[in-house]
Amino acid sequence: MDDKGIGHFYGHNEKGAEIAVKALKRLRCSNKIIKQVALLVDYHMRHYGSNERSKLKRLISEVGKENIFDLLSLQKADAMCKKKQKLIAAAAEMESTVRDIIAKNEPVNIEDLAINGDDLKHIGFKPGVQMGQILNGLLDCVIEEPGLNKKESLIHIAQTKCTGQITD
Question: Are residues 28 and 98 in the same domain?
């Protein structure tokens, strides 16, 4: 209980995802459905304001564009059941911002970058774990500043910030 006498079940999203997986396996649902439901239940407590665009992009990246609107619907339904107007409004704001991100085709995944592993190999980086780390770092830069998603800009960033990982 908190100081207002309200009980909380911290971590209920994770426990709920475990319960959902067990129930769906008993019902012999497909692995695809089981994975999707577990993902939605696990992420349903992640709420961001419309001013947290970069966090929303990371959320889209984590749950996938194919699941994001199901997640937002679940969040709205959860907020409505709790009769919490602030959460309902926040879910609507999140949905609006996510629609804008997707409509503007803003990068949310490594595949959305204007550069790939082959480009990094051509400038001297070794394939492997480090290359993945570099691409993830470049994605972080582009999530924060979408205008950087140009091949020349990303090559420059990789060369100047990751020079210790270039082969001789």
Answer: yes
- Domain holding 36, by residue range, is 12-103
> Phi and psi (nearest 5°) for 80?
-65, -40
pTM over 0.90? The answer is: no
pLDDT in tens, 83-104: 878 888 888 888 999 999 999 9
H-type helices in 7-108, by residue range? 12-26, 31-43, 53-63, 65-82, 85-103
Taking the CA atoms of 111, 32, 68 and 18 in sequence, report the sign of the dihedral they define: negative
CB 148 within 8 A of CB 141: yes
Q: Token pair of 62, please?
A: 């984590």
Task: Assess if residue 145 is contained within a domain.
Answer: yes
For 166, the 3-state DSSP assignment is strand
In a domain, 77, yes or no: yes
Task: Return the residue matching tokens 């969040």.
Answer: 75
Which residues, at least 6 apart from 164, have a Cβ–Cβ distance to it below 8 Å? none
128-167 per-position pLDDT tens digit: 998 999 999 999 999 999 999 999 999 999 998 775 544 4
